[in-house]
Amino acid sequence: MVSISRRDLLRGLGAAFGALLTGKSLTRRASAEEGAKAGTFRFVHLTDIHVQPELKAAEGMAACLKHVAQLNPAPDFILTGGDLVMDALEQDVQRTTLLFKLFTRVLQDNTSLPVHHCIGNHDVFGWGKKHGVTPETPGYGKKMFCEVFGYEKTYYTFDHKGWRFFLLDSVQPSEKLLYEGGLDPEQWEWLEEQLQKKPAGMPGIIVSHIPFVTVTVLPDAVQDSQFRIGAGSLCTGAQKLSLLLSQHNVRLAISGHIHMVDEVEYRGVKYVCDGAVSGRWWKGANKGFPEGYGVFDLSPDGSVKYQYVTYGWQAAQT
């Protein structure tokens, strides 16, 4: 197993020494240590799968899930980070239905873990309005995604072992583009309300497909002596979001979309832009970043360990 990892931040040492000085019994300290260990858990983040009948993509997705099944310790669940299929934006209803059926079949055949899905731009049906698709076509837009996975909305929360997860919809319509990154006003209001409701001592995690904060887009951003980042590459509202997260004990923000890997520490929040299960859309590594997925180990004290893990896939076409 090949991995790209970062050192953990050393946290909680002061609290540990303080406990030793309190004179509590060894039994109580042991009990606390057991409780902390019990509250530690792992999950995996599989993003930009881009499953399709071509390029052996379904076999690659299955290989990734089988690799996840061999992890030790085992993850508690899977987060998918969007762009599950390739491609709903500009396809007809028959092709899009086939893609989502393929995705769900491969998932069901290769994992028994709980799965929480985040929507990506390629999971939105018909915004390209090709092949006769119109807003009146059944499943148009984000409806098909919600119908396939049984969601009322494309953004939601869930709790797991003392952490709260916020899965966001970062794909918004655009007058000039097929889509742009960001949150609509209703979702901003919802997020602010949900963060206010979260217990102050409970650490939080934000998951979006399109990143709010990442350095992966910077190397190609200078064009004609101008600094330009496309609206489809990065979410608007990054300053607003970063301030909001820093005020509400959010420790981690995970994204995908760029098919590259980085970590940024900003205002006390770790932003991870994760690499793609599909690499360069099932045609090998993307700019040196091979096919892989993220492994996250979380502790009750709010500390996070991340590593990007490859699963040995050999592309059918490069």
UniProtKB/TrEMBL annotation:
<dbReference type="GO" id="GO:0016787">
    <property type="term" value="F:hydrolase activity"/>
</dbReference>
<dbReference type="InterPro" id="IPR051918">
    <property type="entry name" value="STPP_CPPED1"/>
</dbReference>
<dbReference type="InterPro" id="IPR029052">
    <property type="entry name" value="Metallo-depent_PP-like"/>
</dbReference>
<dbReference type="InterPro" id="IPR006311">
    <property type="entry name" value="TAT_signal"/>
</dbReference>
<dbReference type="Pfam" id="PF00149">
    <property type="entry name" value="Metallophos"/>
</dbReference>
<protein>
    <recommendedName>
        <fullName>Calcineurin-like phosphoesterase domain-containing protein</fullName>
    </recommendedName>
</protein>
<feature type="domain" description="Calcineurin-like phosphoesterase">
    <location>
        <begin position="41"/>
        <end position="259"/>
    </location>
</feature>
<dbReference type="InterPro" id="IPR004843">
    <property type="entry name" value="Calcineurin-like_PHP"/>
</dbReference>
